[in-house]
Amino acid sequence: MPPMSLPILLLLVWLLPSFSTFSNLAAAFGTINEPILLGQHNEHEMITRIAFRCPSGQKSDGICFEPRSLDQLAGYHIDFMGLPIPGAGFNGAVGSPDTLDPIPEGPEAHCDDADYLDIPGYPQTRAEATAKLQVCIDHLRERFHQAWKAAGQLLDETRTIRPEMVELSGPFGDCAFAFPALQNDAFGRAKCSALEAFGRALHGIQDFYSHSNWVDSADPSQPISESNPPGLGMNGTAPFLDMRATGLIPPEQIPHNLTTGCFALPDTSPGSGDCAGRITHRALSKDNGLIYPDGTIGEVGPNSPRGEAVPSNFHLAVQAAIQSSRDAWASLQDEIRHQYGPLRGNLMLCALVRDDPVNDCILGDSALEKSLIPYTAEFLAVAKYDTQDSLDTIPPGGMTCGLQKQNDFEY
Ligand SMILES: *[C@@H]1O[C@H](CO)[C@@H](O)[C@H](O)[C@H]1NC(C)=O
Ligand SMILES: *[C@@H]1O[C@H](CO)[C@@H](O)[C@H](O)[C@H]1NC(C)=O
Prior knowledge:
Layout: H1 6-15, E1 33-34, E2 40-41, H2 43-52, H3 67-74, E3 76-80, E4 83-90, H4 92-95, H5 126-151, H6 190-211, H7 281-284, E5 289-291, E6 297-300, H8 305-309, H9 312-340, H10 342-353, H11 357-360, H12 366-370, H13 377-383
The structure holds 2-acetamido-2-deoxy-beta-D-glucopyranose (2 copies).
């Protein structure tokens, strides 16, 4: 979009004291619902909802998020008579890297600036672009680490959920998301801290697909250039977004022509200033479009030239972002069980996905046990290696939350 005029900017900041975000500062899949000035339709919220919501009215199976918990992760927006009230609502954890608190997170949170084009004299080499991508991946891994660390505060030493750590109702209300120091959930709720860190990781994971050429195709009507780099047309997710991996991204995982966009203000294509002669965020953007709650996709754009030139580019970016988000959650479940043992890990996961965990996540609760997935022999064999949790305390039939991935333990 064109540079925002100062009066409009001031108006927005005034209108939205705690929710202000705009694509011009931290361009990404959109965070807020403001289709007219910013062209955003809370794309991050929709992707996150589609990835994680429970079927209507159903309790969590341990993987999907119940409504109030999902609101914290995905955020919510508010319509008035079918029209969005710009910025009204809550950005949620996934939107927090775009939030002005006081400024959005930098390029590492959105996988920007890892641009590369295979032409003589391109301002950044393949190795330099790969190093920028590594900075982004390391940042997202750090957020993932913060998420499982925070989960450790959900239980007391008797393995009971600490009510003050999961409270989302009454005067507590929505989580307050902000990192680092000024920041922190005002009530120090571990559920909020874990969701915040995970949501911030999800933000970058989702942005990777809208900001890179991983899934997309170049505009066939234009020559290949900084304004129209080659598309990789990959049909799967990027392996280096595995949040449990460590160290350098294996070189074979990085296609030679992989690129993200250089981001500077004003965000233009061709680029100027620091982004002169480079592939810009603007050139690759597939940020904006309508995503409906059932996962279907409406009009693509505005302000997303690459999405508008080849509309399937936006669809593919959204699909990959949803799948990659689910993969990251599966990894977080595995990591929490790995770090804390299956018994406590499952209780922590239950506390994250359930809206009333104090009543719904109790070992030995008979109502809970009815919906249980029995422990398999394989699971029990694994549980033996958990030094903290004795098998004696596993209730008959086990417990429900988070057990679906029980074959995925890595010890
Ligand atoms: C996706 O890519 C793989 C290998 O890159 C290929 O075997 C498969 O047919 C592709 N699937 C679709 C739906 O294009
Ligand atoms: C990279 O893109 C260029 C076009 O800029 C193309 O000629 C080349 O074949 C691509 N390289 C690979 C390894 O796909």
